Amino acid sequence: MPTEREFQVAPIVPESVMHNTKALSNLQSLTASIFGVAAGILGLESYNGFLFYFVFTLLTTVLFYAFRVAPTSLKSGLGMFDTSRYYRTQYEFWTGGIFGGLAGYILTWTLFYGLIRA
Predict the structure, then answer these.
(1) Pfam families under this entry (predicted)?
(2) Which end of the chain has the least Cβ crowding within 10 Å, N or C?
(3) What is the distance between the alpha carbons of residues 64 and 103, in angstroms, rounded to a whole number?
(4) Is residue 26 part of a domain?
(5) % of the chain beyond a pLDDT of 70
(6) Bigger pLDDT: 64 vs 11
């Protein structure tokens, strides 16, 4: 267990970073399936379906940032888009969930498209 001195020297706690990453990943996986259901019901095909996924996944990340990360980073004096205190990299935060949830999105998209259109 880290001591108080170690927290003062390195205030970023790896366990907290892993927890934050897991919470964001779970949210993005869940919303990817929900977006797949919506795209299948709407009957989206080809590029329109993928564009739907990318737009709404980025919207989900922006909303997560606005409600969870931005208020705490502004209070602590970090920059507006600095997520390094809560996540490993900014790339992982902003685009990590796009490819992680893509398989679930395609699965539910094709399932519900087939159920509605068949």
Answers:
(1) EMC6
(2) N
(3) 21
(4) no
(5) 75
(6) 64
List the one residue out of 100, 90, 92, 87 whose CA is nearest residue 29.
100
Is residue 113 a part of any domain in this protein?
yes
Where do the H-state alpha helices sit in 65-101? 70-75, 90-100
pLDDT at residue 77 is higher than 90: no
d(CA 8, CA 83): 19
Please report how the helices 90-100 and 14-42 are oriented relative to each other, as an axis angle in degrees rounded to 10: 40
The answer to whether the predicted template modeling score (pTM) of the entire model surpasses 0.85 is: no
Cα-Cα-Cα-Cα dihedral sign, residues 19, 25, 28, 31 = negative
**CA quadruple 70, 100, 20, 28: dihedral, nearest 10:** 60
DSSP secondary structure letter of residue 69: I
